[in-house]
Amino acid sequence: MPKVDSKIQEPVEKYGDWAIMPDGEIRNDRRRLRIYPDRLGESDWWINLRSREWMASEWNHFIPAWFMACETAGIKEVPMKLNFT
Fold it and tell me: What's the farthest any 2 CA atoms get from each other in the chain?
């Protein structure tokens, strides 16, 4: 039987439904969305998320959560992709 970690992580910060975990992971349990720390530096998170209708009301919470998660995970720089149409 696999070992189950009995220590449940508590968020270090919350922005709306977005929780920042001690390792830098971002969780949104309401949307069942997790961004793991090793993927925070990917340049197209905001492009991926903007295609979701529900994000229209989430940006003011997501962006500060993303910045805090990057800081928590020790990520100092994130390249950004821009998509002009």
Answer: 52
What pLDDT was estimated at residue 64?
A: 96
Kindly list the strands in the beta sheet with 33-35, ordered across the sheet, starting from the edge strand earlier in the chain.
13-15, 18-20, 26-28, 33-35
Domain boundaries, the chain: 13-73
Cα–Cα dist 65/26, whole Å: 7
Query: Which backbone phi and psi does 8 adopt, to 5 degrees?
Result: -90, 130
CB 68 within 8 A of CB 20: yes
CA gap 50, 83 in Å, rounded: 11
Look at residues 52, 53, 41 and name the one whose alpha carbon lies nearest to residue 81: 41
- pTM metric for this prediction: 0.80
